[in-house]
Design a protein that fits this description.
261 residues, mainly alpha, 14 helices, globular
C-alpha cells in the first residue's frame, strides 16, 4: 500500500501545476492567429535569408545591422518546415514560450517558487513579449539567451560556495561555465545590444570577488544587489525585456505596430 508521504512526493506541487498552466497560456497567446497577417518589411528581410546558404547569410549579415546567428537558425528552420508567415513566426513563438519557463527557473534559483511563478506569469502576459513572440525577427531569441545567461551566471556564482563547503563537482562546474560561454557567444552573434547582459553579470563577478570570505554565497544562496529584495519580480522581468523595447524612446511610436495592420 502506497503511503501518503510517498504520494505527496510524486504528486506535482501546486506551483508546478500553476507554472504548467502559465506556459500553456503563453503558448496560446503567442500561437493565436500567428500567420493571420502578412510579413512586414523587417520580417521580409528575415524571409529573404531563408533560401540562402550559410556563406551567403554570413556575407549578407556583414552588411546588415544584425549578426547572423538568428538568420542561420531561421534558414535551418525554414528548410525543415516551410516559408509561410506561420512557419517563419513559429520559431520566435517557441523561443518566447521557452523564455517563460526560463524565467520560472531563474526566479526559483534566485528567490523562491512564489516569485518564480509571478515572474513567469508577468513574462507570459507581457504585451511586448507576446507581440515580439509573433514576429519573425531575432528579438525573442536574444530575450531567451539573456534569461539563460542570467540563470547560468546564478549557478556560476554558487561555485565558490561549493568549493568552500567541500561540495565542489568539477565536471558540473565545467559544464556550467562552458554553457555560459556558449550562450553568451550565441547572444553576441544574435543582437548587438546583447553585450549589456554579460556586462551586468561581470559586475556580479566583481562584487563577489571583492566580498569577504564570509559573504561568499553558499550553494543555492546568492547575494542580491540593492533593490532586488525590495522588488524581485521587477528585477527578474528586466532580464526578459525585448531589446527592441529597450531601444525605443518612451514617447516614440517607432515600435508600435511596425506598419502591420
Amino acid at each position: 500500500m502506497i503511503s501518503s508521504a510517498h504520494t505527496s512526493k510524486t504528486r506535482p506541487s501546486g506551483s508546478a501545476r500553476l507554472t504548467f498552466v502559465i506556459v500553456l497560456l503563453a503558448a496560446g497567446l503567442r500561437f493565436y492567429q500567428l500567420g493571420a497577417q502578412s510579413l512586414w518589411y523587417d520580417e521580409g528581410n528575415s524571409a529573404a535569408m531563408v533560401g540562402r546558404g550559410i556563406a551567403q547569410i554570413v556575407a549578407a549579415a556583414s552588411g546588415d545591422i544584425h549578426p547572423p546567428f538568428y538568420y542561420l537558425l531561421l534558414a535551418g528552420w525554414g528548410a525543415l518546415a516551410s516559408k509561410s508567415e506561420l512557419s517563419l513566426r513559429l520559431l520566435s513563438a517557441l523561443f518566447g514560450v521557452i523564455a517563460v519557463a526560463m524565467m520560472f527557473a531563474l526566479g526559483k534559483k534566485l528567490f523562491d517558487r512564489r516569485v518564480a511563478v509571478i515572474a513567469a506569469a508577468l513574462v507570459a502576459l507581457n504585451p511586448f513579449q507576446v507581440y515580439y513572440g509573433q514576429e519573425a525577427r531575432m528579438y525573442m531569441l536574444v530575450t531567451l539567451l539573456s534569461a539563460a545567461s542570467a540563470l547560468l551566471v546564478a549557478h556560476v556564482l554558487t561555485i565558490p560556495g561549493e568549493m568552500a563547503s567541500g561540495r565542489f563537482r568539477p565536471r558540473r562546474a565545467g559544464a556550467i561555465i562552458a554553457a555560459y560561454v556558449l550562450v553568451n557567444a550565441a547572444g553576441l552573434y544574435t543582437h548587438y545590444i546583447f553585450p549589456g547582459c554579460p556586462a551586468r553579470r561581470i559586475a556580479d563577478f566583481y562584487r563577489l570577488a571583492a566580498a569577504p570570505p564570509k559573504e561568499i554565497p553558499r550553494p543555492g544562496h546568492l547575494g542580491h544587489p540593492p533593490g532586488w529584495r525590495a522588488d524581485p519580480v521587477s528585477a527578474l522581468a528586466a532580464h526578459c525585456d525585448p531589446p527592441a523595447r529597450r531601444m525605443a524612446a518612451p514617447d516614440s511610436g517607432r515600435y508600435r505596430l511596425h506598419g502591420r495592420a
